[in-house]
Fold:
Amino acid sequence: MLKVDRITITFGGITAVNDVSFYLPEGEILGIIGPNGSGKTTLFNIITGIYRPISGKIFLTLEDGKVRDITGLKPHRIARLKVARTFQNIKLFGYLTVIDNILLGRNLYYSKNILSVLGFEAKDYKNNREKSEEIIDFLDLKAYRYSLAKDIPLGIRKKVELARALAQQPRLLLLDEPTSGLTYEEKSEFLYYIKEINEKLGITLIIIEHDVKVISSIAKKIIALNDGKKIAEGTPDEILKNPEVIKSYLGE
Amino acid sequence: MISALKKRTVRLKIDYLDDWRIIQDRPAFIFTAVSVLTLFILPAFVSDYIIHILTQVVIYSIAVLGQNILIGYTGLISFGQVGFWGVGAYVLAHSLKLGLIPAIFLAGVTAAVVGAIVGVPSLRLKGPYLAIATLGFSVAFFQLVQNTPAISGGRMGLFIERVWGIDSPYELYCLSLSLCILFYLWGYRIVKSNTGRIFVAIRDSEVAAESLGVDVSRYKILSFMISSFFTGVAGGLYAYFIGYLEPTMFNITESILMFSAIVIGGIGSVFGSALGAAFVIVIQQIFVALKEFIPIVFAIAIVLVMIFEQHGLYGRWIKLKLYFMNFPFR
Structure:
């Protein structure tokens, strides 16, 4: 599904991601852990095209089985290849309602002829609205449909962002700290959704997570980063026993 | 009156398309129909002077709406308004042989093409830097017109002969009003469409918009084109209405005036654009004897809006509407 091959990126003198590679088979969940500033989000930004790596390549297997080099493609081109993501500091469109935010996730499914671009698009609205409502049903956001995204609580905002990403009908979904700042109940609810997304919808996931308990309960494979380098890769149990991970997380 | 309001039956939404419609229930429809009818009939009973002001308001509100789509919805702060307005005006003045409606259309299209070119810096520049770049366009346009007699008609200015049958103030008013209504309907359609949502998305977070597959560059240019089309049409209409053009009418202060109309009317609201346009034109008429005070009035108005009502006159309008909808209660 996704193959990251020896990615390196520097900002000024700092090497934010240093020679990281991994492979993610279709339908699996990959967890990424690491202390603050270890390059997790930068890695996401490289995969989604916001940053261009100075060396290394990223390959994505498309729906028809072809492998495509997506290194250095513009973010909107990568989104068109059905890669969706959420952000660590939730980037919802605050002055739009929740339903409008989710509809924006469906913008690729709107026809792009001149009339509909200029605003005349009744049929598109209906179809896409129906799809969005399915997601609203799935994530149980009915009560917030018409609230402005800036007015709703954090737990719901996280769900709306997930809904917006799901509305893109992605094949690969990148979640950046989906459960940070949530209560215990909200965390377990979120984990349930993530499981559903993976199993029922068959979406491949990469999840950045600080809470090792959370990530080891859903991910089959975990990568640990420190100072931009990959220090360990393996099943949750292996990662938790790895001396380097313990060192970088807990200190010596 | 109160009982009528109490009986106000709100139609429940039963179809997804109900959210898509511009006029969503019967009371809104009645209100709109009555106000539009009033606007058409009213001038028959008032003096030519009032009609003159009304026509100005109606034309100006098209331009303000266009710029509000750019500034309010897409969040690209621009001071190129007077340039697009002027392009529309001069294109109409030189192409009126084609007939009025084609000339107005041509004015809009030319302005849109110019808008696409002026919009290119917006792909790189943000916030105040873009404002300065577009201000440069306004200044350049003013200089171009002033120094090119072939365009501006030299020292005499440019007189526009009314070639078409539309000549009396009332006819002109009706033409402008019909165009205004058409453009406002279109404006609402844009704002409620996927394109409109993308504009707001670009304003709120470009990175997130891109991650949803939005080609931000393309939509920024599109926003520039749509807004300058509106402004160009309004400029052309204004030229035909005034019947005379001279370069000083396209001073950059006009850009700032249109900007204040947006801020006072309500940033990012369609109806607010009309309110803002009306405010700007009417204030200018009220203070016509005290011209020096007009900038001060606008300055105070903007400061008041910024402090007390960020949504401008539109915000006030919504609050007023809510007050009457729940009349006996607060």
